[in-house]
Amino acid sequence: MRSHLKYAKYCMVLFVAVICCSTALGAENIYAPGHTALDVFDADGFKSSPSWVQIWVGFMLSTFAVGIFFVWKHALARWAIGGLIASMATGHYTFVLLGLPFLGGSIAIMHIICWTPALILLLINLPFLNQQEPMVFRIWSGVMTGVITFSFIFDVRDAAIYINHVSDLA
After folding, report:
1. Do residues 115 and 87 touch, judged by C-beta distance below 8 A?
2. Which of 99, 103, 122, 149 has the maximum number of C-beta atoms within 10 A of its C-beta?
3. d(Cα 73, Cα 63) in Å, to the nearest integer?
4. How far apart are CA 12 and CA 114, in angstroms?
5. Which residues partner with 33 through β-bridges?
6. What pLDDT score was predicted for residue 22?
7. 3 pLDDT band (50/70/90 cuts)?
8. What is the tens place of the pLDDT at every residue in 79-94?
9. Quick one: 86 exposed, middle or buried, by C-beta within 10 A (0-12, 13-18, 19+)?
10. Segment 6-19, tens digit of pLDDT
11. Alpha-carbon distance values, 15 to 41, 106, 134, 138 (Å)
12. b or e along 25-38 (b: 16 or more beta carbons within 10 Å of the residue's beta carbon)?
């Protein structure tokens, strides 16, 4: 339990660092819907995305959703589902409070902040290799590890583009 609290503290420190490092600015600029770091990724942005992005988002959300079946017995599933819920519930509100535009890059920042604890725990514990775990949980945890890792490839890039963009606006 203490190690989970330790990771939660790291997430809070990272979250506060993002807030402190951000410069409040108005969202006067008009951004187009789309799937890149400087686009508004809403329903129109999703529709205008390439089909591979739409398929990826569906697969990613489905993988998180399957984690619901494991939350009662596996803390790792709670961390993954909690990270998804936290990013979805607080992302837009956080950036609005900061006076920053809520674009694809800000979504990437929320993914990094909220999903990192689950990824760290998945990589430390390697439940997908643990023969003691049920096969369905092993498969889900392996896919979940891959989903978050693959997502971070794009999220890190998009977060950097977004941070550079809002820094230039200040």
Report:
1. yes
2. 103
3. 17
4. 9
5. 40
6. 39
7. low
8. 999 999 999 999 889 9
9. middle
10. 554 554 444 444 44
11. 21, 12, 34, 30
12. eebeeebebbbbbb
